[in-house]
Design a protein that fits this description.
The protein is mainly α. The two termini are 29 Å apart.
């Protein structure tokens, strides 16, 4: 999977709203269940602040007190992943799925991890598919979008089906629009791709990925002037992006 595809995988992770007060430690007189929860809450708070080391410490402490909380394992997996300890992250995600086999967030996160960091895209898709079957999950559109993004490197038709299902649930979800624009571009359906890209621009601010795709779509359709407009915007607004480097490389090769 290309880096530009991986960026679009969305966690759909619901972390708590900002914690009340300025708690920095769990009170000593708590029972074990409350202490585990307090440490998990502190870990979430540090995670929200980007303080990964303190988040790791608090979540590890929560799990030391109560090893049977899939949410704590899932969050610790995310911390390890962001710290680039991928073996430890995978271990925690797998524990979360074992402890919460019907937790769509855990299944989603393990699917994302496998799709992003391993070559086993089919296994990743199986976790997304398990999550599809869990009723009453408000973020179902994210599951389909993530599965579609993951499936792009193994089966474009399957990827299209997943992404279209996600858009049925949330027609304005910008990342699904962008990913479906890329899928239809790869399939050679350039007019469809243009339509999805235009819907993306109506739903979200231009991104380097969207401008790069729009440039290639217009090139494929023979609209050189519009393509150059997108190229200019990409160079101006995202000069340090991966997509700008790809554009410059293409222009050098063409010249």
């Amino acid at each position: 999977m290309k880096l530009t595809d991986i960026r679009h995988l969305a966690l759909g992770l619901v972390v708590m709203a900002a914690l009340a007060g300025c708690v920095t430690a769990a009170p000593d007189d708590m029972n074990s269940a409350d202490a585990a929860r307090a440490n998990m809450d502190l870990g979430i708070s540090y995670l929200r602040q980007g303080n990964l080391e303190q988040a790791r410490i608090k979540l590890e402490r929560s799990i030391e007190i109560d090893d049977e909380n899939p949410t704590a394992h899932r969050l610790l997996g995310l911390v390890y992943e962001r710290l680039n300890d991928l073996d430890a992250a995978r271990d925690q995600y797998e524990v979360a799925v074992r402890q919460g086999p019907d937790d769509p967030d855990a299944l989603n996160q393990l699917g994302i991890f496998l799709c992003t960091h391993t070559d086993d895209k089919r296994q990743a898709l199986r976790y997304f598919e398990r999550a599809f079957d869990i009723p009453r999950y408000s973020q179902r559109f994210l599951l389909y979008s993530n599965a579609g993004t993951c499936a792009k490197t193994v089966d474009l038709t399957l990827a299209e089906n997943y992404l279209r299902k996600g858009l049925e649930l949330n027609p304005g979800y910008a990342e699904a629009l962008l990913q479906l624009g890329d899928v239809t571009y790869q399939q050679g359906n350039y007019f469809q791709s243009r339509a999805f890209v235009e819907r993306f621009f109506a739903a979200a601010n231009p991104s380097s990925q969207a401008l790069w795709l729009a440039y290639r779509v217009e090139q494929a359709l023979g609209d050189t002037a519009t393509a150059e407009g997108y190229a200019g915007q990409l160079l101006r607004d995202f000069p340090e992006s991966v997509e700008t480097r790809l554009l410059l490389e293409q222009q050098r090769n063409a010249g």
